[in-house]
């Protein structure tokens, strides 16, 4: 039947292919992933051709949205948090144990998926201005979701504080089975250790140890710290550069050593609230996860919303890469850094999640890609 279906010349190629397949059998045997947890890590490193051509540098992006549980770098973190808790006897599967977390989405989605796979429940607290598709997805995964008014970290109802309280309430309650575990992505060492163990070594191996700079935004700081700790231990001269969105204090922390811009007038500093469409990165406190790698960060680049939106459109238009807001910020910063360093350097950054998680917010205001709006040049994007 096969030879009937194939033309004679195809058949020869097909037979050769069969021999090749047989000879690679031994090598590929066993390449079966153990559940969703087995699909976490070993993500591809993609050359972003349009940005590389424009800058004369090699701009590479770690495609973390291809992690196969919750489709973001947070898969690594969620698995690390759960495994560490299991090792310490803090979680018992199918006992009613529930993981509580405050998140703008990605960590919650990764936790909800792995909780399903391992027999735990997930309860997610998130700000109510986060893209609705993230909470819809969490609900479909069977997580409990509390959307709360955005509030400063000193407020007890701030989403992270609320998750901590809910975990304690669960453990204290006699009505609920099992215990409540607060995942605590901002402060737990399980977060940066996941990147020290996985993301950092993978980047080192995939580049053959040849790279000049690593660029990343920080939400908890786990990615930039964990990757920086690994890469600087192998390549002491590598530049670690923070990509920071509007309103975040981390840029100032790296540039001036304080969380505010010293050029701003004293009275306006603390009340200075900047609205941004960018989700997942930018923060106004130094978390443990940021602090652990802080001294390894050499520089910071500020990226605004217009630059991020235009870059996201550019990446679809020219490279077919469809990403969310934090990935676009990373790509703007990587391109700016390439222009500063000059041609011939190799820069690695992170693609965190897909644009599909951002249709109702970050991607909402834009026309479909392919229209006249795309005549904007990279030069104009970097200058916006
Ligand atoms: N991108 C997205 C979409 C995120 O949700 C996060 C984490 N909140 C980050 C980037 C930042 O990663 P990290 O927490 O490791 O700093």
Automatic annotation (TrEMBL):
Locations listed in the record: Mitochondrion outer membrane
Annotated keywords: Membrane, Mitochondrion, Mitochondrion outer membrane, Transferase, Transmembrane, Transmembrane helix
Protein name per its UniProtKB record: Cysteine synthase 2
GO MF term (any one): cysteine synthase activity
Protein family: Belongs to the cysteine synthase/cystathionine beta-synthase family.
Top-level taxonomic group: Eukaryota
Listed EC numbers: 2.5.1.47
Membrane topology of the entry: Single-pass membrane protein
Enzyme class: transferase
Every Tryptophan synthase beta chain-like PALP domain range: 38-353
Any Pfam family matching the protein: PALP
Catalytic activity as recorded in UniProt: O-acetyl-L-serine + hydrogen sulfide = L-cysteine + acetate
GO BP terms, alphabetized: cysteine biosynthetic process from serine
CC cofactor: pyridoxal 5'-phosphate
InterPro entries, sorted: Cys_Synth/Cystath_Beta-Synth (IPR050214), P-phosphate_BS (IPR001216), TrpB-like_PALP (IPR001926), TrpB-like_PALP_sf (IPR036052)
GO cellular component: mitochondrial outer membrane
